[in-house]
Amino acid sequence: MTTFRLMRNIHLGLGLTFALVALLFAVSSLAFIYNSSLPEDSGEPAAQTLKIPAAKASSGRALALELMENHGLAGDLSAVEESAGELRFRIIRPGTEAQVAYSRQSEEATIQTRRRGLASMLKQLHTNHGFWHDFLPSNIWAALSLLGSIGLILLGLSGIYLWFGLHQERVLGGVILGVGILYAVTALTLTRLS
Questions:
Q1: How far apart are CA 75 and CA 68, in angstroms?
Q2: Most distant CA pair in the chain: distance in Å?
Q3: Contacts of 175 (CB under 8 A, 6+ apart)
Q4: Is the backbone of residue 172 left (phi > 0), alpha (psi -120 to 50) or beta?
Q5: Are 58 and 39 a contacting pair, CB within 8 Å?
Q6: Which of 1, 8, 113, 151 could form a disulfide with 18 if both were Cys (CB 3.0 to 4.6 A apart)?
Q7: Which letter does DSSP use for residue 105 in this model?
Q8: pTM score of the predicted model
Q9: CA 104, 53, 84: angle at the middle one, nearest 5?
Q10: Whole-angstrom Cα distance, residue 108 to residue 57?
Q11: Res 15 pLDDT > 60
């Protein structure tokens, strides 16, 4: 098998493997662009009150772990606010957000759980980053995103190699590549400025 045919097969395999990841990121980008016209929430928040001993609520993280391990909440801890008599924080996962308020005096945690709409879930998946989440599916998604990014970079590089191997199409391919790079740099610059 020639190098060109091998690279063509690699290029095809990468394209088929990572097309779904690219499509998901494209669709989730639309959720940012058309944010104002898409519904965010789905229904009223569900509320519940739990009795949690103060010993298990020494900090926001300790209370969040207690709620996640023993009371069915799941997600990442966010926006922790601590004061002498109260703890407030959110536990977020794609599609769901729980707002927790804990009173040290009454030892009660009030939890309001809100289901988010599809647009909000897509935005959370799009901006999910890092491998240090309390929610295991977020770590798995982060690993898939990393593999997808590497795969798409390799797809682009193998495409450039294949294009360069076709001598009769170098000029047209160079123009298309140049326009694509110019568009990407312009779009990145404009998004950073806005």
A1: 8
A2: 78
A3: none
A4: alpha
A5: no
A6: 151
A7: T
A8: 0.66
A9: 20
A10: 10
A11: yes
Pull the structure tokens for residue 176: 């298309």
Distance, CA of 35 to CA of 71 (rounded, Å): 33
Among 106, 56, 102, 112, smallest CA distance to 82 is for 102
Q: Which two tokens stand for residue 129?
A: 């980053």
pLDDT higher than threshold 80 for residue 7: yes
In the β-sheet with 46-51, what is the strand arrangement from edge to edge? 46-51, 108-115, 96-103, 86-93, 76-82
CB 25 within 8 A of CB 169: no
Q: Report how far residue 29's alpha carbon sits from residue 192's, in angstroms, rounded to the nearest whole number.
A: 15
Q: What residue spans define the domains of the chain?
A: 3-37+136-193, 46-116
Among 50, 25, 191, 68, smallest CA distance to 107 is for: 50
- In the chain, where do the E strands start and end? 46-51, 76-82, 86-93, 96-103, 108-115
